[in-house]
Write a structure and sequence with these properties.
There is one protein chain. The chain is mainly α. Among the domains are: 95 residues; 82 residues, Serine Threonine Protein Phosphatase 5, Tetratricopeptide repeat. The chain contains 20 helices and two strands. Helix 7 packs across helix 8 and helix 18 runs antiparallel to helix 19.
């Protein structure tokens, strides 16, 4: 390769890297601003996507502009206006916009990404639509990237996003941050979507134990955005603490594509810097004195992180935290997780009685059968334990979990 060609390749790689950084930090702002301006997520998202494609071509040739965020904003706004011009029914709106409406880069008091995020997570949308639309409009993933992350057909994801955008427009769903009594419930929904996004990156249907780090990083980034934009919301800091605690264990959680259960993880591989960040976020949440389910979950994760080895885990404290968590979240999965702590404190026989009480709601869950198999094995009922673990393996859809259960079964 000639020196000129090599230089051009290096310059192109540098511009692509710069564009990636700008998209991560600015795209959601621009989509949010254009959505508010044009009253359409569809117009805004397509305009930004087209601007990113233009930047990919032009920056490789002309170099990265002095104000890359401003360049992307101007290009996206121009694209949106072009579409409005082509659609005559928006002529009046275009006229009002061109007669003094502020540019998308005008300063605002509220983080522009937040109203967009709350709109994408509106309760009128189905949970899978909330996740897909958030990944597309707020995070900026392509349809193909979302399909890979969720292991669904790209056509299914595309249709889901289109329907969600149409519903937002047809129903007049506002792109705003709720105030007063409405905020707590809506914020919890936003935090749930971020948590699901993080979980989706780690236990994908058919995948091994390796995480989709891009999606996991995006979930952490969104948690940071919400916590920074709503500093007085304790639960936002609680969710941030939770995902940081989980991320701190990632190198020990998956080794060569294999899932390593928490008690067997090499704790020297845990990231102490991330644990410190998580502890700081949890302290900030606690200082606000408004406990909630995300803080309780984060406090449970903190107890595990405090133990230098599995045998040092403060199970009585974890059981107390699960009891507190049940006051605001009585989902069967929370009750199942509590069973694990209960077994460590009161023994497997007591835990089995609790599992029986959950049977009707969790009999189709591989996790229920896996936990039950462990408890049966600890009480010496090996044949029943094996049957439960075989059922769990048959129900599991993640290959890493299936492999772990196969190891237990010796197959």
């Amino acid at each position: 390769m000639s020196g000129a060609a090599s230089g051009a390749t290096a310059a192109g790689a540098a511009s692509d890297a710069a564009l990636g950084r700008v998209v991560r930090h600015e795209a959601a702002y621009i989509v949010a601003a254009l959505s508010r301006m044009f009253r359409s997520i569809d117009i805004a998202e397509e305009a930004v996507a087209a601007a990113v494609e233009e930047a990919l071509r032009e920056w490789r040739v002309r170099g990265v502009p002095p104000n890359p965020g401003g360049w992307l904003t101007a290009a996206a706004r121009h694209n949106a206006l072009d579409r409005i011009r082509r659609e005559r029914r928006y002529a009046q709106k275009l006229q009002s916009l061109e007669q003094g409406r502020p540019a998308a880069s005008a300063p605002v008091e509220v983080d522009e990404r937040l109203p967009l995020l709350f709109g994408c997570c509106h309760p009128a949308l189905a949970p899978e639509a909330q996740l897909a639309l958030t990944l597309r409009a707020v995070v900026g993933l392509t349809t193909e990237q979302i399909a890979r992350a969720t292991l669904e057909p790209a056509t299914t994801v595309a249709q889901r996003i289109v329907r969600a955008k149409r519903k937002i427009t047809a129903s007049g769903i506002p792109l705003r941050v709720p105030e007063g009594d409405d905020r707590a419930a809506r914020l919890d929904l936003v935090l749930t979507v971020i948590s699901v996004m993080y979980d989706t990156a780690h236990l994908r249907r058919g995948g091994d134990a390796a995480a989709d780090r891009d999606v996991a990083d995006d979930a952490i980034w969104l948690a940071q955005v919400v916590a920074a934009a709503l500093p007085q919301e304790a639960e936002a800091h609680g969710l941030l603490a939770l995902v940081l605690f989980h991320r701190s264990r990632e190198r020990a959680r998956a080794v060569d594509g294999r899932l390593v259960p928490l008690p067997r993880q090499d704790r020297s591989r845990w990231d102490s810097a991330l644990i410190a960040q998580a502890q700081s976020a949890l302290r900030r949440a606690a200082d606000l004195r408004r406990p909630g389910r995300w803080q309780y979950n984060a406090a449970i994760a903190a107890c595990h992180s405090d133990a230098r080895q599995a045998g040092d885990t403060d199970w009585p404290q974890i059981l107390v935290l699960y009891d507190l968590l049940l006051t605001c979240d009585r989902s069967p999965i929370v009750r199942l997780n509590r069973v694990v702590a209960l077994a460590e404190v009161a023994g497997p026989d007591v835990a089995l009685a609790e599992l029986d009480a959950l049977a009707a709601r969790l009999v189709r869950s591989h996790l229920w059968h896996a936990v039950r198999g462990e408890m049966l094995r600890r009480t010496g009922r090996a044949a029943e334990a094996r049957a439960a673990e075989q059922t769990a393996r048959g129900l599991a859809v993640n290959e890493a979990e299936r492999r772990l259960l196969a190891e237990r079964l010796g197959i």
